[in-house]
Structure formats: C-alpha cells, structure tokens
From TrEMBL:
Residues 1-21 form the signal peptide. InterPro entries: DUF2799. Keywords: Signal. This is DUF2799 domain-containing protein.
Amino acid sequence: MKQKVVSLMMLLLVGCTASQSEVKEKNTDDWFQYGEQRAKNGFLVQEKETLESANPEEAVTEAFYNAYLEGHTSGTTIYCSQEAYILGLREAPYFGICDQVMPDFRAEYEKGKNHKKE
C-alpha cells in the first residue's frame, strides 16, 4: 500500500512539473487572432515597436507582425460593417478605425451619439 501511495505521489509531481513547464509559444494564427480581436473592438493598428514593448517576453517577428496586420484588416472589415449610428446611440467609444475605409462612418457615429442630446 505504501508503495502505491509513493508511486501515485510521484506521478502527481511529474504531471504538475510537466504542465507548468509547458508554455505555449505564439504562432502566426495567434497573432492573426490578436489583430482581428483588437480591430473588432475598434482599436487602431499598432506599430511593430508598440507590440514588442507590450510583449517583451516574445519576439515579434516579421511573420508574426504580418499575421497581426492581416488579422487587423479582417477585424476592421467586421467592425466597420456595423451601423455607425447605432454605435453612437450606445455611446460606445470610437477610435477612428473606419475613417480610411468608410469616410461617412464617423459622421453617422456622431449623429447617433448626438441624437440622445437633442
């Protein structure tokens, strides 16, 4: 019985050690998803240097940054397809992500935002 308990404890210790040492490194899919999610939340694209500063433990390679940019472009399309007027009515923050893609987006957003004030 004592041997079974010791064996079980050893297995638990090995399992805990293995799970703690397994740190998932980011790949291009992760950077794509990160860029897409930021854009879906309305945030402007970040420069590579800004990403490196925000993630000092990770190397932001050209491939990673390009994946981030592709994801951001995808997320921008999704974000800018929503009704700007409704976004303004909800008084959600708008950081200008659609200004280059849809010049009328900001005007519609402002109309919605100012609708409640009238």
